[in-house]
Write a sequence for this structure.
């Protein structure tokens, strides 16, 4: 849900990195976080297990500067890829304006990629977001590895809708900024064209059921790590927002959207945002309690 603050001429969009376990979602955010050319980033917050598997999500806010006369902020999220964290994935997708689907290019990951893309579509629908209209970019990651499928092969099974594709090796920083740039450009394009991504025939999602989170096990001791990326070597890519900045010289992409946002609507959006934030906090509290119960269980069994 794009949040437009007319008073300070600012728009905030939400971009979610989705994909199967270990495909490189968190690595993408870490590389963005560590890229000195991308300025005005907030702290990166990671909630992961001891083995760096994402437990809830990673989060990082960023300012992208002024585009088309509006200040643009983007909130970046990753979902946990492990299948049993579906409730969290659903929650993180709430109000998303764009998705980067990170696919693992290794041939052996074909089925995991397909399953995850199907899961993305289901969870978008459950959030009343039209999978065919939301800004979607595919990143074919891990191109540095042997035994990867060709781009054509991957397009054949993942990309019938012809979404933009970026080849990447996130671990080396390659393609990371290009992916972010493509996704932001897609979101701004949707905004400019006033695309309504709501699925009206889908019922409202009820309160989140976090019971599916009981996959937290003995090796999953909890770790909330702000700035997990800060010690890693950083990629440097040229002119990170070159392509997005092009929009600056074209028509104001926010003209239509700005017109239809009166103060009452803005208040409504803020209230929706607050309610989303509240349910995330509640869900996290519940999940933390679950994890603590699990931990105690395992300790009791060990002693
Ligand atoms: N060779 C190679 N390894 C990568 C690449 N991107 C990420 N990795 C590695 O893959 C592993 C998983 O990366 P993460 O970024 O934690 O994966 P994730 O998608 O966040 O995983 P979950 O949080 O469990 O869903 C790590 O060891 C990364 O270093 C890449 O482009 N090439
Ligand atoms: Mg992760």
């Amino acid at each position: 849900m794009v949040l437009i603050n007319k008073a300070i001429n600012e728009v905030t969009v939400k971009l979610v990195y989705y994909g199967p376990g270990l495909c490189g979602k968190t690595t993408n955010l870490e590389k963005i976080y560590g890229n000195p050319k991308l300025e005005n980033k907030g702290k990166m917050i990671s909630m992961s297990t001891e083995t760096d598997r994402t437990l809830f999500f990673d989060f990082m806010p960023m300012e992208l500067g002024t585009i088309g006369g509006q200040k643009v902020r983007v909130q970046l999220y990753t979902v946990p890829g492990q299948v049993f964290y579906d409730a969290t994935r659903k929650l993180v997708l709430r109000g998303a304006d764009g998705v980067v689907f990170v696919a693992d290019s290794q041939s052996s990951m074909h089925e995991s990629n397909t399953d995850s893309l199907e899961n993305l579509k289901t969870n978008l629908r459950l959030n009343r977001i039209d999978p065919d209209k939301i800004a979607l970019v595919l990143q074919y990651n891990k191109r540095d590895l042997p035994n990867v499928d060709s781009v054509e092969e991957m397009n054949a099974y993942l990309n019938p809708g012809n979404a933009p594709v970026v080849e990447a090796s996130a671990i080396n920083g390659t393609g990371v900024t290009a992916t972010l740039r493509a996704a932001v450009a897609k979101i701004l394009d949707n905004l400019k064209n006033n695309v309504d991504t709501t699925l009206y025939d889908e019922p409202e999602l009820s309160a989140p059921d976090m019971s599916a989170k009981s996959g937290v096990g003995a090796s999953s001791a909890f770790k909330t790590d702000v700035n997990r990326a800060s010690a890693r070597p950083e990629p440097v890519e040229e002119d990170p927002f070159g392509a997005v900045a092009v929009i600056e010289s074209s028509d104001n992409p926010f003209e239509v959207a700005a017109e239809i946002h009166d103060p009452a609507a803005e208040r409504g959006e803020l209230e929706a945002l607050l309610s989303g934030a509240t349910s995330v906090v509640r869900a996290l509290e519940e999940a933390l309690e679950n994890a603590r119960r699990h931990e105690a269980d395992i300790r009791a069994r060990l002693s």
In short: Helices lie at 25-34, 86-93, 110-126, 151-158, 176-192, 242-245, 255-259, 263-302. The longest strand covers residues 54-67. The beta strands are 3-5, 10-18, 45-49, 54-67, 70-78, 98-104, 135-141, 165-167, 222-226. The chain has a mean pLDDT of 80.
